[in-house]
Fold each of these.
Amino acid sequence: MPTPTHFLTIAQTPADRIRAMLERAVRLRGRPEPTLLSRKTLLCLFEKPSLRTRVSFEQAMRKLGGDVMSMHGAEVGIGGRESPEDVARVLSSMVDAIMARVLDHATLETFAKVSSVPIINGLSDYAHPAQALADALTLVDEFSPGHVAGVRGRTVAFVGDGNNVARSLCAVCCKLGMNFVLCAPEGYQIDAQWLAAVRAEASGGGVGGAGGVSVEQVSDPDKAVAHADAVYCDTFISMGQEHERAQRLSIFGGYRIDAALMAQAPRHAIVLHCLPASRGVEITDEVLDGPRSRVFAQARNRLDAQTGLLAELLGGG
């Protein structure tokens, strides 16, 4: 039996496969394949709450003619009632792919070691690659409609915590030849060792030949957005960090995306947010609902991005 292709992080996924997923997503918009995954089943497993991830994966599988089922982590008891290894072995003997939204990224890595079918990361504390695909697709739509390669040279500024979303966004920018700037206070930036590996791949051209890519970390929001084509933010308080709320709100107080900050960005710059948004905290209503926002188109692109992802992993070329 061939080794399954997993999708755990953007950084671990070759650039040519990232591009293939996005190109497939664009192609399927105009040329749907409603029987591509006929007689195949996707299991969606949720240890964390979900809106966009669940609906996008379920609908994407249906659009491709496949079956889908969803389970809550509590009924499975991963690591309690059953070991992660046993869960993955059993499930992979019954379905064609497993999409899991987990508390701990190590769970996905354990699944991948023993699973006989693809494991797809629907979100972990370490990475959110499914979101990053939709982010990239939104940038393609805005700056080079229908042409994935056309985003090369664009600059994305992420203002806020160097979290799982920021890490995945950084990686997808590098894979596609875009520049990336993270603006975060000291102590909340992306891990230097991880960033060095991404920089090395980008400067060496990586799998996709994305040489010349710039990856920066700064602490000044005005500097971060000065040359940005897209300004991105996420919650300052991710799931599991609720006990840090007061501390984080104090530290990130100067990192909100508002009209004053967007006035420092180029006039063509768009605004992105992965949602859910804490309105008035990391982003104001004026910006989120304003003419530069592409946030709800970005959310809708989760469906198209996941359609391209599933088609590539399960449907062949």
Note: The two ends are 19 Å apart (CA to CA).
Amino acid sequence: MTNKTVFLTGASSGLGKGMAREFAQRGYDLVLTARRLELLEALAEELRQNSDARILVKALDVCDGAAVAQVLAEAQQEFGQLDIVIANAGIGVTGRAGQSSMQDIERMIDVNVKGLIATVEASLPILRTQKSGQIVGISSVAGSRGLPGGGVYGATKAAVTNYLEAVQAETQGESLDVTILAPGYIDTPINQGAKSRPFVISAEAGCKKLVDAIEKRKRFAFVPGWPWSLLAPLLRRLPTSVIAKMT
């Protein structure tokens, strides 16, 4: 068992909820954040019944940078140390260029890009003061190549990867680890309406693999590694004429 503490955004559903369950089973204490406090409280009660994890829940909209910094500071004060900060909150809305709602587009950029950056920027001073810690950002296989119907979502995930790669370079030599995770299709609500979900795996299996990669402190990992470690780079090489036929 461990006394390490995980701070997790977007913990009320999907990958966040699944990772919270996996971390609790492995003995971590948890700070669970999301906009929907009632869902967090229900999850916290479930985890307390099934593990010995200490759990703190906080309502948080990652688009509010000041609130992100405040909640991180409160969590660090409550537990004494934050060992892993996971910027997981994200949304996905499909739509082709010229046919998408600007409201949906702006919301994806706000949550997926600005929210992740706000979380990382606010956590870095805390982890540097501690002289230890790990930052984890959730990107996506979709960030490997722009695909029809997912241009904006893929662009947000490509931005996430580029930003976190810069953070890795800027923290080189410090006692910090920065992990970039790029999931493929893991069976969660964000993709359950998709017409096609190649190589989809269950949420339980996917979240176990995500937590495994985090514990190994990997710098970058596709999840699952097979077949995406082969297919994602291949996407970059495919002709646009082939990509255009994809749905």
Note: The helical segments are 14-25, 37-50, 65-79, 102-130, 151-170, 203-215, 225-237, 240-243.
